[in-house]
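Narrative of activities, Objective 1.

The group set out to show that a structural description can be obtained from nothing but a protein's sequence at a throughput compatible with the screening campaign. Below is one input-output pair from the validation batch, recorded exactly as produced.
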Amino acid sequence: MANETSETPNNHVGADLDGRRVCVAGLGVSGPPVARALLSRGAHVTVVDGRDDDTARALAAQLTAEGAEVVLGSTPLPEDCDLVVTSPGWRPDSPLLLRAVEAGVEVIGDVELAWRLRPNHQVWLAVTGTNGKTTTVRMLESMLRADGRDALAVGNVGTPIIDAVLPDEQGHVHDVLAVELSSFQLHWSNTVRPYAAAVLNVAPDHLDWHGGLDPYARAKGRVFARGTTRVVNTADEWSVGLADEEGDPHTPAIGLRLDTPRPGELGVVEDLLVDRAFVPDPVRGAEELASLGDVRPAAPHNVANALAAAALARSIGAAPGSVRAGLQAFEPEPHRISHVASVAGVDYVDDSKATNPHAALASLRAFDSVVWVAGGLLKGAEVDGLIDEAAERLRAAVLVGADRAQIREALAARLPDLPVVEIAGPAEGAPAEHGVMDAVVAQAAALAGEGDTVLLAPAAASMDMFVNYHERGDLFTEAVERLL
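Output recorded for this entry:
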C-alpha cells in the first residue's frame, strides 16, 4: 500500500532553518536532542529553562559547546525569535508560550518538528491513548521487524522521535516508525499526518494540563486528522467518537473488538486473532493472525493492544505470519501485569504501571478473585467507577500512599463488608519504603486464599513514596520473593 504522506515534500520549516532564530523551551528529555537537530540544520538556537541546578548546568555546558545559547533560571522569549519548539510538559499557559503567541511567533512541539524534518520515504504509524501506548508500539515494532521492515519504535520507549528522523553516523534513517504520541505532543502538532493511527482508549488523565476531559480527548483525536487511516477501539466511546468527529470520513476506519469481528474489523474468534479488514473479501473472508497464547499476558486490554498493533502493521501490508511471529518475539516490559510468583496457591502480579483508575480497572478485569494493592497519588482522579466495575472481583484490599483515604471511603460506600487494611507510609512514622512494601505483601498474603491473585494495580502515581512506578514494582517483587 502506498504511503501518501511520504510522497509529499517536507514542510517549509524543515527547508529554511538555516539562519533562523529558534527558541527551545525546556532542558527535559526532548530539549537537548531538539536543540542538536536545529543546530545541525544551521539554526541559531537559544535554550531556556527555569531550573538552575547541577543537572541543568551540565546539559547547558554541553549544548553551549555545540553552539547553542542557554539561559537558566528564567524563561525569556529571545529577541528576534521566530519559532518556539516547546517540550511536551510545558503547559499552554506558560508565560513564555503566551508571550510567543501574543508576538505572533509559531509554537510547535518536538513531534511537529520531527515530522517537518523527516525524510520523504519515512512512514509513520502512530499510537495514542490513555493506557497501552508503549506496549502497542513495541508490539508493532516487533511485527514489522518480523516482516522484514526497517522499523523502530520511538517516543517514550528510549529513542526520541527527533533522533529517528535524522541520519545516523552512517547516514541511515529507518523506513518505518512506530510512534508513541502523548496528548501533550499532539496538542503542539499542527501538520503531523501518520499513514495510519490508533486511539486505544481515553480516560481522565492530565486534566490539569489540558483544562478538562474534552480538550484532553480532542488532543488525542488530532492524530486522526488530515487523512489518516483510523484504527478504532469499538469498545471505547471516545475512540469511536474521535474517529468520527476529528478524522476524515473519506479514509478507512478499521475497528477492533474482543469478539467476532465484522467486515472491516479485527477481532477474536474462539482463541484466534482474526483479520476481516485487510483481506481481499472482508464480507466472506478472514485471515488468522495469531492465537491468544501468542499474546503475553493475554489479559483483555493487552489483547486489544495486540489487535491495534496488528491493524497498523497490516495497514502497510505486513503478512499475517509476521503478526504471529512479532507477538511471539515480543518481550513485555516489567511492571505491566507481570506474574511475580505463586505462593500457597496464590498468584502475585505486579502491574505498578497501572498509574490511573482506567489502567487499574483493565488489570482487575484480567482476574476473577483479587486482593487489590492500591494507592498513591490520584491526581484528582475518581475511583468510584472503577470500584463499581470491579466489585465482583474484589476479595480484599490493602491500601497505601497519600490518597489511600479516598480509595478507602469509596470502598466503604460500595463494598462495606470488604476487608480493607491500610499501611502507613514513612512520612507517618512507618518503616522506609522497603519495609512498607514488606508489610503490604504480608497483609495481602494473610487476606488471600487459594485461587486468589494479589494484584499491585495502584490506580495512582507513585511519587508520594517512591522514585517512580519502576521502584514501586521492584520493591513489591522483592517483598514477594522474601515471602517465598
